[in-house]
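User: Hey, quick favor. My workstation is busy. Could you predict this chain's structure for me?
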Amino acid sequence: MPTPSYPGVYVQEVAGGVRPLDTASTSTAAFVGLSEMGPDTGAGLVTNWTDFQRVHGSFIADSYLAHAVFQYFANGGRQCYVVRVTRSDAAVASVTVNNRAAVAAEGMTFSAKNKGDWGNSLLLQIDDATLDPGNLFRLTVRRQTEAAALPDSPQDLPALEIFDNLSMDPASPAYVVDVVGQTSGLIDAEVLSTNNGTQRGVHRGGPGPTLPLGTDLAFRISLDGDGYQPVTLPTATGTVTTLTDVAAAVQTAVRALVKRKASTDTAAFSGFSCTAETVGSQSRLVLQSGTTAVTSSVRVQPATAHDATALLRLGDAAGGRSEDGIAPRRPAAVQLLQVGDAGIAAPVTRTTRGSDGVADLTESSFAAAFPRLDHVTDFSLLAVPGESSPAMADLGMAYCAGRPLQDVFYIAETGRTDDTVADATAFRSRLTTSNSYGALYFPWVKSPDPTGRSADPVLLPPAGCVAGLYARIDAARGVWKAPAGTEAVLNGVVGLGAELSDVDHGNLNPRGIDVIRRFPGVGVVAFGARTVTADPQWRYVPVRRTAIMLRVSIYNGIQWAVFEPNDEPLWAQLRLSIGSFMTTLFRQGAFQGATPAQAFFVKCDAETTTQADIDAGVVNVLVGFAPLKPAEFVVVKISQQAGLASG
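Assistant: No problem, here it is.
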């Protein structure tokens, strides 16, 4: 509070009594599986199907991951995490090329961003840069649309990525390794230790100088970054008509200059040379520094008066071109360079083919990827689409139940060939994990082939559709609404792997198998909402998921209480904050009961937190809620009434 010093009104902001809690998200899914491309070291967030294609590619023959993500977004999903699994013998595609030195050496290796056969379809084009073509280079990345044949010209394919004005200088902000590594989604670049050649910095003038020079005898020059100094040729040079004589005059004048920086090698000036060079039918001046260091360079600029650069074709504006000492380290120019599958011929020195691998994958291979999600806290659904075995379901539900906050729900599915009640029952009986952190769906669904290769619908695992359905129902009705019923239509599904009757359904439902059915006039819908647990308290999917939402919301919302004084003022604040949050949910229809007192309670006082707890630094908050449970069985009783008079 400001110290009052004058009569008047003082205004101060003070904290309110209630610290609001935000409702945790319940609709973000995580999918684990094989993909065409993408990083295999973490969990990446994608926000739409196009985003998935950009990072992870498209549909592949031996995985349903892409299909599941496609279905997830089609059914209402907004964002999801993707965890890519790769085989142990998968390899990254790469190609190594020479540098541009006179005696070429291995200069750079370009490799696909991650493992997989996809990298063999990458095509590179290496050209001179736009701004400084003598020292910088441009790298263009394309990708073959057909693996069978290379295009006749790079321009036959669209450029996916273009990196212009790349430098070989590690100190430059345009250093190729940094720029490509940090911004490319397709390739990485490595400068090899063998790429250490240098040359004398050189400036080659443009062809066809105009002689004699007359009074235009001045220009400015900088050697090895020493700074520009004025050069004025002798008056007699203005009348000569041979370029060799001009070159000799330039060499003498520049060698007479004195360096401006103590760090500049004096050899840059004393060893400077200027010669006349004939190219085809025309001649040009070649100015070279006397050093061969990385920083060796020659730069020419126009003079302010009596400028000779235009007549001599020196300087960038007059057609001259500078190449510094480091310029030979640039990768060799090439119009069409295939990553991973290029033939070994100059400038290519070696390649490594990218591969998806052939090693066998087991349920443990996918479960080994679950820990990549350990530090991701904003997802609540998990699926391994297409890996439909009891062992995979057990591993998935065990992971969800074993997370520190128990904040994730697993969506399991029966096997592809399970198409009878007996098959589904046998699958369920082989589950060894029976917690409430997962639900089992049967059967697989039929959808139009998203690849367009099949005219008939293809059989797909239901996990992607169901996860998207969860997200859609959560957004429209709340997590406490069962993701099932006639409103739970699975978009993009045109059939089922097994058509079930009411009797079939009646045999599966008590076993905790959530059935997907087709109803006339409605379509294909999820028509079950049970977890696989035998505990009646957690029988229903919305009950477990509501509890997850409450747990995460309260956990995140009361972090402020840590290290607060453990006494009644803190307890009152906790009761008020959590109570306000629960009241808001009650008004949204999240709980049973006609009043808040019937729907929930929040207790935090001397009864829940004893003096022993206080001494141990513990405050105990007890939160209870009356969950909504779905009306699975709607019973209508019809009777006849005799003798009633018509009204």
